[in-house]
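From the shared-data thread, chain only:
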Amino acid sequence: MIRYLLAVLSAALLASAPLPVQAARLSPMVVDVEPFGRESIARVELTNPGAGEFPVEVQMFRGVISEDGQLELFPADDDFLVFPAQIVVPANSQQAFRVQYVGDPELAKSEVYYMQVRQVPVEVSPGQSQVQVVVNFNVLVNVIPDGSAPDPVVDEVAPVMNGEQPGIQVRLANRGTRYFTAGTLPWQVLGRAEDGTAVSMQLTPEQMAKLIGVGVVAPERFRSFFIPTERPMAEEGLTVTLGG
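Structure, as C-alpha cells:
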C-alpha cells in the first residue's frame, strides 16, 4: 500500500513555514508579466539537488483570494503557454520553465494567477509499502496592464481579542487597478490602550511579513488582517497607516 504526504507551498498567502521535505526549490515564487509583448513571458527555474529524479507537471490557475485569505483556484490553462508542461528533472540539475500569458490583452486591471508545479508520485511494485512525500509549488503570477496602479485604503480598524491575545483587526481595500502586497509595506499603528497609555507601533516590512505573510490584495478586493498588540486597545482614536 502506498501512502502520500502532501506539502503545498503558496507564495501569495502564507508566511514562510517549514516543509516536510525541501529537496526541490522553485525560483522565483512571485513573477509579474504584462498582457502582451516581450514582457508577457516569465522564466521560472526548478532546482533538484536530490539524488533521485523529480517528475513534475505544470498547470495554470486563476486565483481568487477571499477577505480572510482563503485561496480558490480556477483552471486557466487557456490563458497561458507553458513549456515544458511535463518533465522529469534529473538528480542534481535545474530545469527552466517558460510561462507566457496569451489571454485577454486588453485587461482593465491586474489579474492574479498561479503556476502550480506538482510532483508526480513514482509508481512502485504491487504490494510494496512506501511513503512518498509529494510536494506542490504555487508560483504567484500577476498579469499587470501598463499604467495600472494600486490604491491601498484602510477601510476599517477595530480592537479585538484573538483568544487571550489582544490586537486589532484591519480591513484593507484596494481601489486601484494593480495588486499590492500588504506584507511588504511598513505599517504604523497609533492610538491608546484601554488603560489610557499611548501606543505607537512602527512595523517594518520584515515584521509584517512574519505577521501576515505576503498579504496579496487584488484590485477591487478586500483583505482583513489581525495585528497583535501588547495591551487591549481602545477604539477611539485608533488609526493604521500603510507605506512610508
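The first helix runs from residue 205 to 212.
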